[in-house]
Amino acid sequence: MNGMFLILATFLAATIEGVEMMAILVGVGATRGWRSTFFGAIAGFALLTGVTIVLGNALLNIPIQWLRLLVGSLLLILGLQWLKKALLRIARPPARRQTPPPFQPMSSEKIDWYAFVVAFKGVVLEGLEIAFIVVTFGAEANQIGTAAIGAVAALVVVGGVAFLIRGWLPRIPREWLRFAVGLLLTAFGTFWAAEGARVRWPGGDLSILGLLAVMAATGFTYLALLRLHPVRTLTGS
Hints:
The chain has eight helices and no strands. It is mostly helical and 237 residues long.
């Protein structure tokens, strides 16, 4: 395989996984605080780097199915919890005005382990898939180093875009931002957990867009029902 073609192929494949990774990191960072999210991502990348260096081609023998099932299930649970809180608070404007001030990042002396763990898991799972791409493409052409260049370039580009958009996220009302992040976590969690259970999604990773659309429609439907029956929103808030 030509070197430039290998870099391009790896870049495109890794970009898809990188977008999924950055979507989780940006969402969690904007709602829980960037410091803990950053530390979780760094820890995930450190683990991945060590595993990739030590195992190399042996990565292909690691059963990723159980990891997808575990991480996907946890993200699905967390996402549903966020969606529930966001829907109840959006549907109750008077009560929402009495809630505590918007979330402020924790002090520099503390770690938000919730943000840390979600960021860590997202980076490890998506990073492993990028590592599989590098090893698979690179081993076939006997150019693992060249394939790694394409993957690193993809992460740099996607990370740069994520860095640029982080500034306008605080302008979004907190509960709507929580709602959006809940949708992301729920969609990714459903996708990964089902893959871990060996479900074959039509269209591969693109089916995440379909999951997001279905879950967004469901969320707005519940929001409309909660606004029609405000008394019921008093429970579970």
